[in-house]
Each structure stands twice: as C-alpha cells, then as structure tokens.
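User: Earlier you gave me the apo prediction for this protein. Now I'd like the version with nicotinamide-adenine-dinucleotide bound, so I can compare the two side by side. Same sequence as before, with the ligand SMILES added.
Assistant: Got it. Here's the input I'm using:
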Amino acid sequence: MTYNLLKGKKGIIFGALNEQSIAWKVAERAVEEGAEIVLTNTAMSIRLGSIDELAAKCNAPIIEADATSVEDLERLVDKTMEHFGGQFDFVLHSIGMSPNVRKGRPYQDLNYDFLSKTLDISAVSFHKLLQVLYAKNAVKEWGSVVALTYMAAQRTFVGYGDMADAKALLESIARSFGAIYGRDHKVRINTVSQSPTETTAGKGVKGMGGMLEFADSMSPLGNALAEDCANYVVTLFSDLTRKVTMQNLYHDGGFSSMGLSESVYHAFLNGSNSDE
Ligand SMILES: NC(=O)c1ccc[n+]([C@@H]2O[C@H](COP(=O)([O-])OP(=O)(O)OC[C@H]3O[C@@H](n4cnc5c(N)ncnc54)[C@H](O)[C@@H]3O)[C@@H](O)[C@H]2O)c1
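And here is the structure of the complex with nicotinamide-adenine-dinucleotide:
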C-alpha cells in the first residue's frame, strides 16, 4: 500500500550495496511514496554490489562518495543540490563496518588502527556528513536525517565487538548535532535501532544466525525485517513526524523492552536439562 507520504520530497540514500541492504529497501519505499532520490556508496561497493539495478528501478543517479572523506561528502552534496536544483528534504545514513569484527579480533584484543577505521566509517562519518550538510545549508526546514543503529550501544551482545562503541558514538552525534541543526534550521536528526537483519554487514557479525533466532524468540512481534525498517524510516522522512528529533528509536518488535520471553525460558530449560 502506498500513501504518497513523500510526494515532492527529495533526498540522499547512503549504503545500498545489494538487495539485502536496509538502504535498498528504504530507497524503494521512498520512491514508491513519491520521493526523488540520489544514491551513494563507495567506489568499491558500487563496483562489487548491484546498486546500478536499484538506480535504474528508482530512476536515480549514483554519486560515488566515501563517507569518511569530507571532500567526497562536499562533492556529493554539491552535485545533489545541482541535480535537485537546490535544497533537499531527507538523508539516510546506512553505513557500518568494523575491520576488527571482520577479521575476528575479539574485544579484549582490538587492533587500534582497525578501531579508528571502525569509528570513522561507522560513526564519525555521520558527524562529517551533518557538518557538510549544515555548512552548505543543504537540507530544507523540517527536513529529516536518519542513521541506522543497533542496541549493542546500550547493552552488550556477544560478537558485536567495537561496533558497539561506534553505535554509542553515532547515537550521541545524533543528539548533539540534533540540538544545533534543530535550533538553527529546524532539521531533525534521529537514529533507528533495528533488529538483527540478514544483510552483508549483518552476516559479518560472528554468531549472527543465533542472534537472529534469539532476538526473534524474545520479541513479542518477532524481528523487524528490512522491509519493516524501510516503512518506519519513510514515516520519519514524512511530515507526520516533524517534532521527533534527537531520539534513538527502537524498531525491534519489542525486543528492547523484554527481559525474558516464554520461548527463550523454555529453550533455556530444555538446553540446561533442569527441572521447572
Ligand atoms: N544488519 C543488521 O543486523 C543491522 C541491525 C541494526 C543496524 N544495522 C545498521 O544498518 C546499516 C546498514 O547495514 P546493512 O545491514 O544494510 O548492511 P549492508 O552491508 O548492506 O550496508 C552497509 C553499507 O555501508 C557501506 N559503507 C561501508 N563503508 C563505507 C564508507 N566508507 N563510505 C560509504 N559507505 C560505506 C557499504 O558499502 C554498504 O553499502 C549499518 O549502519 C548497520 O550497522 C544493521
């Protein structure tokens, strides 16, 4: 079902690598809801992924940018403003990568060069993006910027390693910049804390299969899928959420408010051979 929620709105979507990407689903839904979009990713991801297919489907240009490079971000924002003929309405930051997690370095044995990269790619890139958008006054009043995050910023999850620290920083940047951008230009900034989702980045986390199953068994509504996330993000880009800013919004089927569900309780008892 479509509601024309984004009719006449324009925006940039970072992070669509392939059909599994959450950003891919957001791009599709945004266009279905009437938006015009620009797609962006790194040169390598554009080459190795299938973003061309998405661009054709969404009638969107692809502008290459490494989100850790301020120069690239400036070029991206300039070109996007040229393409749209001025300011735009929304931006999705859907970027995450940890070399420590990828190479299986446990949290008690981090490589610090890798940690710097994790933080730069997964969190500081959000500050760089916001700083460029703000300096160029690129986002319209009542515009909306959303970044995707995970609950490991608040609670510890096995296998998530230094990405937990990156997500904590990302969420903090959304609050700190949200205060300034809201005050000066009425632009809102939020993070959406999504359920574990089967994507390329998701699969990089060791034990992802078990994590997905555990989260699903804990959540009264079950895990939120990438498609569900896209629906939620579209509402945050729309005019229906104009006064929502500086929030970390859980989109996880209820997981974040659960302590113990019946199914996890019974699975634990069965696994441990204890009597009830
Ligand atoms: N998959 C999950 O379980 C899950 C859960 C919660 C939050 N998230 C978050 O959702 C976001 C999107 O991830 P996804 O799961 O769709 O995986 P994905 O692998 O499809 O997307 C990650 C994207 O980050 C991009 N990227 C990496 N380095 C970059 C750089 N330097 N500059 C620009 N882009 C860069 C990649 O090219 C890729 O498109 C991430 O922030 C991730 O942490 C994912």
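For your comparison, keep in mind: Strands lie at 10-14, 36-40, 88-93, 139-149, 188-194, 248-251.
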